[in-house]
Amino acid sequence: MAAIEAASRQLHLEEITSLSSEQNVTEARELLLEYGRFVIAQPGAARFCFGTLEKEAARLPLSFNDQGGGCLVARVNGQPAGFIAWRAVPQDRIPNAWELKRLWVRPVGRGLGLGKSLTQAVLDRAVAAGRAAVYLDTVPESMPAAVRLYLELGFEPCAAYNDNPMEELLYLKKSL
């Protein structure tokens, strides 16, 4: 019965752009801010700046578009259930690479493969854009399911590529 129920759910990914409706942009902002509230509630997140994330949310989608990236919202039966963003890694740090940012799936969307679908959609866009690699940083203690997902998708541990002040970060890279 559960398999039938899960199969009957309609999953849809939508890129948020400057042409998106105000409602869709607002829903993306809500998802992004939920992600931020989750992060600051985790141990060791004292250096995570929620104010910066609020500014990022206020400027969606430009906060990522202006950095050579974008963002996606996942919907389950028409309701917003997940978010992911990406941006270009500065050329002086790592040429021709993107950084995966802000993967968030609401509890209602967990177990449906939304995180994988969102991440794979960014990887597919990176390949289409001719990128050489996608990087990310994450906190394994706070986000073990995300870490498992990234490893399953072929990300591998790498050296720090940014100046993230949070402690206990795991840096990952997927060559494309």
Commentary on this structure:
The model is unreliable at 1-7 (pLDDT under 50). This protein has 176 residues and is an alpha+beta fold. A seven-stranded mixed sheet has the order 1-2-3-4-5-7-6, sandwiched between helices. The protein has helices at residues 2-8, 22-40, 50-58, 62-65, 114-128, 144-152, and strands at 11-16, 70-76, 79-88, 97-105, 133-138, 156-157, 170-175. The termini are far apart. The protein has six helices and seven strands. It has one domain: Aminopeptidase. 36% of the residues lie in helices and 26% in strands.
Number of helices: 6
CATH class: Alpha Beta
Helical content band:
25-40%
- CATH fold node name: Aminopeptidase
Total domain units:
1
Oligomer: single chain
Strand-residue fraction?
A: 25-35%
What is the CA-based Rg, rounded? Answer: 16 Å
Structural class: alpha+beta
| Largest sheet data | 7 strands, mixed
Secondary-structure element pattern, one letter each: HEHHHEEEHEHEE
Query: Are there runs of 5+ residues with pLDDT below 50, and where?
Result: 1-7
**What would you give as the CATH superfamily?**
Gcn5-related N-acetyltransferase (GNAT)
